[in-house]
Each structure stands twice: as C-alpha cells, then as structure tokens.
C-alpha cells in the first residue's frame, strides 16, 4: 500500500498524465482510508488554481 507521500505525489501526477490502473487502485485504496490524503485530494484543484493565479500575477508584473 502507498504511504501518504507517494499518494499525494500520484494525486499531483494525475493532473499531468494518465495513471495506470494499478496506480489508480492504490491511490483509491489509500485515499479511502486516510482522511489527510482525502482532504488533500479535495484541496488540490484549489491549490492548482492559486498557483495559476500567482503565475499570472508574476507575468503581469514582469512586463
């Protein structure tokens, strides 16, 4: 079974690439039992949006 570090890494990777069936099942199993990783999974889209906005602000100030 995955640990929390590996689970959150796969959650982040899932935004960049398709996970294998095995990776998806391991992720689902761990996130189903770990409330911390389940919370991270729910917050990940918000983190991505915040990072995108920050990058846009930096681009605006660089010009």
Description of the structure:
The chain is an all-alpha fold. The longest helix has 28 residues, at 35-62. The protein has 3 helices and no strands. It has one domain.
Radius of gyration: 14 Å
Would you identify the regions where 5 or more consecutive residues have pLDDT less than 50?
none
Provide mean pLDDT, rounded. Answer: 90
How do the SSEs run, as a string of H and E? HHH
The description of the largest β-sheet is: none
Question: Strand share of the residues?
Answer: under 5%
Beta strand count: 0
Short key terms for the protein model shown above:
63 residues; mainly alpha
What topology emerges from the helices and strands here?
Elements: H1 4-14, H2 21-33, H3 35-62
Helix pairs in contact: 1-2, 1-3, 2-3
Give a short overview.
With 63 residues, the protein is an all-alpha fold. Helices cover 83% and strands 0% of the residues. It is built from 3 helices and no strands.
């Amino acid at each position: 079974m995955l640990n929390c570090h590996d689970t959150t890494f796969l959650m982040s990777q899932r935004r960049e690439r398709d996970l294998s069936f095995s990776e998806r099942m391991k992720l689902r199993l761990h996130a189903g039992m770990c409330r911390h990783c389940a919370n991270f999974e729910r917050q990940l889209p918000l983190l991505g949006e915040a990072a995108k906005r920050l990058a846009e602000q930096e681009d605006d100030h660089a010009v």
